[in-house]
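WARN retry 2 of 3 for item q-0093 after timeout on previous attempt; input resubmitted unchanged.
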Amino acid sequence: MPYSYGVTARSQAAPDAVFAALAHAATWPRWSPIDSADVESGDPENRQEVGDTRIFRSGRSVSRERIVELIDNRRFVYDNVSGPFRSYRGTIDLAPMPGGGTHITWSATFNPKMPLSGGFWQWYLTRFMQRMADGLAAYADATDG
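OK item q-0093 returned
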């Protein structure tokens, strides 16, 4: 049975500023609970593209995520390719708000590897990803301009 979560945040920054933070792995530790970010066969300071795999570390936890879709200033989609999930697809949608700013929707569908752990992961990821979305919004606010 697939599980899902969805969180939202609002940034005063334009969608291009929010998207720029998403597309550069090196910024993620600046605005999220992630400790470090690398890119397989690439530089995390450069903009990542579809097919790039990023490696995020938080404490002892390591996550590998492959970018599967990018629509500039509108959508960022990734698959988690390691960790506790059989499948995991995350989507970050950006929508301009009337009067300026960006509405951020961060969602995912996933299937955990361990039976009966889906409810826990849904609870945990909803809270963790809300921190991610809020951090992204605040970072974009501070760097837009």
